[in-house]
Each structure stands twice: as C-alpha cells, then as structure tokens.
Amino acid sequence: MKRICLALIAPLLFAQRPGDPPELRALIDPDTAEVLRRIDAVGPYEVPDLRLKQDTNYAKTPIDIEPYSGAKPYKEHFLVQMEYTGPRRAEPEPGPDLKSVKIGFIGPIMATVSVATGGASHEEALGIKMLQGAQLAIEQANARGGYLRRKIPFELVVSNDNGLWGASGNEIINMAYKDRVWGILGTIDGANSHIAIRVALKAEIVMVNSGDTDPTFIETNIPWVMRVISDDRQQSYLLMDYIIRKMNYRRIGIIRASNRYGRFGVREVRDSARRLQRPIILEMAYRVGAEDFSLQLERLKAANLDCIIHWGDAKESALILNQMRKMGMNQPYFASDRTVSDEFLAIAGKNAEGVICAYPWNPDRKDPKLDEFRKAFRARFNQEPETYAAHGYDGMNLLIWAIQVAGLNRAKIRDVLAYRSQPWPGVTGDIPFSATLDDLGEVFICRRENGAWKYYSREDLGIPRGYIPARDRVSRATGAIEPMK
Amino acid sequence: MRLASVFALAAGLGCILPWGSGGQAQTAAPAAAAQKLPYIYTHWRQFTTKDGLPNDHIFAVKADGPRVWIGTEGGLAMLDKRTGKIRSWTEKDGLPWRVITGIDVDKKTGDVWLALFGAGLARFSGGRFDHWHQMNSGLVNDVVYAVAVENDNVWAATTAGASRYNTVTKEWTVFTEKNAPMEEIWNYGVHYGDGKVHLAVWGSGILEYDVATGRWKDYLDPDGEMEIDLYRDDGIIHVITTGAGYVDKVLWVSSYFGASRYDGRHWRGFYNQDSGLPSDFINNIAVRSGNEAWFCTDKGLGAAVDVATNTWVAYTRDPKRNTGYAVVTRDKQVIETVETGLNIPHNYTISADINGNDVWIGTAKGLAWGIGKDYYPGLRERGVMTASARSASGGAR
Questions:
Q1: What is the mean pLDDT of residues B93-110?
Q2: Closest CA in chain A for residue B282
Q3: What letters, b where the CB count within 10 A reaches 16 and e where it falls short, cover A382-408?
C-alpha cells in the first residue's frame, strides 16, 4: 500500500531533480521518477528498495521443449532480476569542466584477421551498419540539446572488437577506465560479447547489446547487461514451430558455420527438434569463408531430407543455396536472420525465391517512428538502414535516455535501465525486457516472395505454439508430455 | 532497535527466522545450553583510503606473513600487519597499470605477481616492476583476472585462455581450446594446491591440471543447461564459474549461481535457498580446508564451516549503522545471530584470503581483517552467544 501511494505521488514530488529543464522532465515517466527517488536516497552501503522483475517462465519456453521436461529441476535460474548491490550510486558526478558525455561503441568495423570469429573477420558489414545507427542517434540527441542537464554534447567513443584475440576485453577496459564513458553499446560476435560483458561486470559499466543473438549472452547473471534484439532462442522457437508444428516436416537437416554464431545459433533448433520428437537427421558444419560446400551437401542430399536449415552469414547462405539447387536439392531452405540481406540476394539471385528466415523484427510495420528513422538514415548515409542499423539506433537511444534521466553515475544509469517498467518504444517495435533484461519482443517469419521479403507474425501464418506454463518449473507439478503425432 | 536490525538482517539473508511475528525470541536451542557451534569472528579491523589505500575497490588480497598485498582499482598497496601502516604504488611509481585483479606471492623468491586488468602480468621484486603483456611475451591476453604461482611456474587466467610462464626457463605455454578441454576459453580464476592447478573458466566449468602428469580433467555441469540445475549434487552447479580452491584433496567451486564442493567421490551444491550463502552471486572464494571455505558474495560474506552439518556463518554489515552481524545457520535454520561490531566494510565482497587464523576480505568499499584469536576449525561445544559479542573478551571460544 505504501509503495502504491508513493508510486502515485512520486511523479508530482520527485519527477525531476532541482534545476532539471522541462525537456528532461518530459523523459521521466512516473515509474522512472520513483526509481530515481529511491536510488537518489541511498548511501554507499544501502541497496535501494526496488521491485525486481520476475518471470514465471524462462524465455517464453513451451513446456514440450523445456530441457528435461519430464523432471522437476532442483533450481531454475534467470527468473528473478539480478541486483547491483555495490556502493557506486553514492559516487559524485564529475565536476563542471566536463566537455562532453562519452558513450562507448564496440563492434566489428575494421577488416582484420580474427581468431575469435573463426578465421578471417567477416562481420564488418553488420558492424558498420550498427555504428551508423548509433551515430545517427547521437547526432539527433545533440541536435536536441545534447546532455540536457549541462548543455554539453554526447560524444561517441568508437572501438573495433575483432582485432587481436580477445581484443574486445581490452577495448572495454580502455573505454571504462581511460575514456571514462558512461555506458557502452555493442558487439555482434558471441565470443567477443562474452569477453566484453565479463569486463563490464568487473568495471561496473552498463552494456547494451543490439547485435548479438547468441542466447547464452544473457544467461550469465550479470546485472550490467541488457539486450535490445530478440535472440536466436526466440527466433528458433518460431522457426521450429513453423517447420514442425505447422508444416510437419519430419526429416530435418542442418548446415551451419563452425564459429560460435553457428554453433550456438542452432542449439535451440537442435534441442527443439529432438524434444518435439523430430531429431535432426544430420548436422554439417563448414569453415567460415568456405566457398565449396559439396562435402556437406552430398551428405545432406544422401540423407533424404524434407528441409534444410542454415545458420551462418549471408554469403555462405547464398553459396550453399545455389550449390544445393545445382545438385538438384529442392528442399525448402530455412535460414537465420543474417540471410536477409542484399549480399545474399546478389549471390543467390532467383534461387532466393521461397527462402524462409527467422527475423527479430518486422521492417514492414507501419510506424511513423520507423519512417522517420529511415528518412533520417537515408539523408545521413545515403543508404538504406537494415536490422543492425535499426537495432543499433534503438540501443543507443535507450542508452542516451538512461544517461539523460539518471545523470552521470554509472550505477544509476544501470538502474533506470534495469528497472524500466515499460517496453522501450524502438523503431524495431516495442522492446519488453525479461528478468534477465533480454528482449522478449515478438519475432517474425520472413519469406522471399515475388522478389521481395515479406514479414509474417505467428498469427499471420497460423503457426501453432506449444503450451507456455504460467508457473516456474520448481513449484509446478510435473506432467507427462504428450509426444507429437 | 538492535533486535529489529537483527530480524531485518536475517530476513535479508533469506534465512528462516527463528522468531515468531510477535518478536519473541524462539531460538532453535535454549540460549544457555551448550551445543556444537562454529567459531565466529568478532574482532575486525577495516582499512580504506583514509588509512592509505590508493582506492577502496579491492579486487584482490593476498597475505604473505606479516605483509598483506592489496590489489585495488586504483593501485597496489601493502599493509604491514604489525604496524597497521600501508604503503602504496600507482603508475607514477612504476606500476604498469593501476587496476589489479589478482595477486599471488612466490614463496621461494618472495616475488609478488600481479594480474593486471587489461595490461597483462607484472612482477614486483626488489622494488622493481617487470611487465609482461601480449606484445612482449607469450601471455595470451592482457585481460588477466587471476594469477597463481605453481612451483617455478606462474599461471595467468586471462579472458582468452590461460598462460603459464616458467620463471626459470623463461618459457611460455598457452592453454586454449587447442590443447586443453576448454569448451570456452574465458578463464576467470586460477588456484594451485596439492599438486593441481584449477582453472575456473566462464562457460567451461572447472579444469584441473595435474602438475605431475600434465593431464587435464574437466568438471562440467552434467545437465548441460544454462537455465536450470537439474540435480543439485550431480556435479558443479553451473558452468559459469568464478573461482576454485583445492585443499585437503577437496575441490571448492564458486560461481554466479551458487557454490559446489567435491571430495573426490561426492559432489555437493550450495545455494542461498538451502545454505547460509548470503547470495548465489559469488565473486570469489578462499579455501581454508576441506571443511571450510569462504565465499565473497554481492550480499555479504558466507563461510561454510562444517560440511557434514551444513553449518555456515554469514557476515554482513548493517547498511544503516556502523556495525555488523554474524548469523550462524544450519541447513538454513538460524541458530545464532551475533552483533560483531563493524565487520566487513561493505556487503559487496570481492576477494578473500586466509592467513593462519586470520581472514582478509576485499570489498567494494574497503578491506577487512578478521582477527581469529582463538580460532578453532569445525564445531565445538559452547553456549550460544548473546546478541552483542563485541564486548565479550576473546570473541567466540
């Protein structure tokens, strides 16, 4: 009752700190005002009394694809939000001589040799788009007055993460301790992401991820990390519901990149297929950068498959598809979201028709925000924005909002993000956060039809969904799972 | 007020409160009756920047006789236990980088080895710093989380594999997925003891290197799933591990999900829900014996002090008052709550070391020295202490 009363009056009493300009007040919703009131009130030894996000189900996982679904686990993780219990909320803001508010960006933006990503670097095209989205967000924020409390600009500190082995760790340290950025957006490659977030945890700086769809990225119990793109788990769930529950394919094969993106991307595909009584018939991996896939495809062809799923980058996806068709393999071709690209279309040509991908958002959505973003992006870069640009833009805007609202204190910036009660209204759609601060927004099926990508929701295509229990696994009664007919 | 604080503390620890709602004490055993209880540290000293530390965020602490080496976010310090004086080094004194995440001391040479967060490895010897990094040595990565001295070798746990430096032959060996069973290469902790090096690897559980045979063995979470622990006692509870300690041929493991213990035959998992762990988020571990391990969590310090009875002592600071508490639990039931006076300076604990009867705890806001006067291991018959033990001479006996 006390909490409810406070929540009701907080906007009136505490919606802003003394001297906050009106344009800043407009950014503070009542729930955030209450979070600010509570985090401003604590000293270095106290932990603010904030309502932790709690999920009753991890990642909206249907009961029939939960791991060990016939057994009750001793412990289920990730259902309650992690806290930050350290003293940094009490640290003072920097003095008046600050000239800019620095925000870090880390991503694969320079071509190099990268052991971490499986050989030659290959993600620059994605990283540069993500950087452009972030740059646009910064420039627009500066056009609106920059950091509103001090009327100073935001400054993007840009670093490359695919240099030397494990370079992302060094880069985060530089940004945290030398550049003294207030938050970081970044990383695409799963290995680099894990390295980066471990450093962010020790350095105690928030990292917003907009490009790594590795499900394990968020499964680390780090209270300083959040993600604004739906991961491969969510995309796999939808794809496998389409392939198995809707299309009833029985003999499913996988071809994937031998890097972390491929290895972890298909994990939920493989697990879902097995748990839905359709174990993957054959899984073949290839070296990143390969151009001849005959070894893998000959085996997949011999397996007499109903469909083939590819998890890897656009170029390899197109080459595999072309070689499949040339070999007379006319099975439906499913792929991860990276296939949805101009590079894929340029190589695949007519073979692209009918390809189906999982996709983390719906670019065809009618939304004035999205239209404005596209217009501004074209004006700024003379290019079309794609998924990495759009998610980078959303992630950077979220970070800018948090810095504006919380002030120049890393712990408080983390708090307003972590305890945000409403989904973030991004150009990629509303982004609701789970207890792990992962993006649990809607994902889509993307199909190449008549020379264009068409995006479909689960409802559009009538894709059945497994039952998602409303209780956590430990406190729920265990029931037998009906096998698929 | 004091009793209320004790209630709040016990509730905050997630303990089963032994008191009814009316505030009437209902201890598990009569207060005056002697029962088998653990030692409680009731004498503590704290050190912060006011005492000469270069920074209050203590990533690493290592006691070496009367010298206590302290790795902070802003430099290196050495505390002389005998005088209480602190000397410190920063970059202007030749320290290669100010953020120090791990420390070990070579018993043979007295050299102090430093894990530098983003700058490699340093040796402090004879008043001079020597520096190894990716560009001048075989160190596999500059983000070094921990360091351990094993005979003539120095092991560094880095974010992209482990490196071993032989201080006699000057040879470097790199261990990654190419030559060790590292499913992932993100090393986080390293410990040497009883002829074995243990690496705590983020995403790859615990890797054990037998120094005599050069063979590796891995310990992974048997259920293989990130989001659940299917059975508590079937292996390590999670593959994202943060530290390990091997003493008396018993392996203790910390993680951000709870703790594990392996005696060579049986595994045992510990969570906040079933033990005296203040929280499942464990930054680090210090092991005294096969029966006693200290866990640095984000909500206080938890010491497993008797495995057979699942007896723990949790130390926390009262966030509003300049005091702290020790809560003894057995199978999660609170059997004793003692106000110790200020113990750890902050409940966000990061590092620990055990030195004889004393314990050293690094926190996010200062260092604590728990003075183990008349320390005893395990359990002994004694009376339950009164709420405030600060005035009791000699602490727990």
A1: 98
A2: A221
A3: eeebbbbbbbbbbbbbbbbbbbbbbbb
List the strands of the sheet with A207-209, edge to edge: A154-160, A101-107, A184-186, A207-209, A225-227
Smallest Cβ distance to A199: which of B140, B143, B240? B143
pLDDT at A479: 53
- How far is the C-alpha of A191 from the C-alpha of B186, rounded, in Å? 9
Return the pLDDT at A328: 98
Stronger pLDDT, B18 or A145, i.e. the higher one: A145
Per-residue pLDDT of A113-140, as tens digits, reads: 655 455 666 788 899 999 999 999 999 9
Residue B25: inside a domain: no
Report how many Cβ contacts below 8 Å link chain A to chain B: 134
pLDDT for A265 equals 94
Inside any domain, residue B225:
yes
**Cα dist. B333→A155, B13, B25, B312, B336 in Å?**
53, 11, 14, 10, 9
Exposed, middle or buried: residue B295 (CB in 10 Å: 0-12, 13-18, 19+)? buried
Residues of A in contact with B225 (CB under 8 A): 67-68
The ranges of chain A with pLDDT < 70 are 1-16, 113-121, 162-166, 478-485
Report pLDDT for A103.
98
Q: What pLDDT is stored for residue B396 in this prediction?
A: 36
Task: Round to the nearest angstrom and report the end-to-end CA distance of chain A.
Answer: 50
Q: Which letter does DSSP use for residue A174 in this model?
A: I
Amino acid (one-letter) located at B179: N
* CATH architecture of the domain covering A98-229+365-437: 3-Layer(aba) Sandwich (3.40)
**Mean pLDDT of chain B, nearest integer:** 91
Check residue B19 and give its pLDDT: 26
Whether B22 is in a domain gets the answer no
Q: B257 is written with which tokens?
A: 């999900």
Q: What is the pLDDT of residue B27?
A: 36
Separation CA A211–CA A117 (nearest Å): 14
User: Looking at chain A from residue 26 to 65, which residues have their Cβ under 8 Å from any Cβ of chain B?
Assistant: 43-47, 58-59
Using CB atoms, pick whichever of B134, B188, B228 lies closest to residue A75.
Answer: B228
Left, alpha or beta for A223 (phi > 0: left; psi -120 to 50: alpha)? Answer: alpha
Q: Could you tell me which chain B residue has the CA closest to the CA of A175?
A: B118
Question: Is there a contact between A85 and B348 if contact means CB atoms under 8 Å apart?
Answer: yes
Q: Say if the Cβ atoms of A85 and B232 lie within 8 Å.
A: no
Report d(CA A266, CA A252) in Å as an integer. Answer: 12
B200 contacts B187 by C-beta, under 8 angstroms: yes
Domain A233-359+445-461 - what CATH class?
alpha beta
Contacts with B, A 318-377, CB within 8 Å: none
Tell whether B24 is covered by a domain: no
The domain of B250 spans 52-313+349-372
Give the domain ranges of chain A.
Answer: 2-51, 98-229+365-437, 233-359+445-461
Which residues in chain A have their CB less than 8 angstroms from residue B234's CB? none
pLDDT at B319 over 60: yes
Report the SS3 class of residue B380. Answer: strand
Q: Is the ipTM of this complex over 0.90?
A: yes
- The rounded distance, in Å, linking the Cα atoms of A66 and A116 is 30
Q: Alpha-carbon distance A407 to A403, whole Å? A: 5
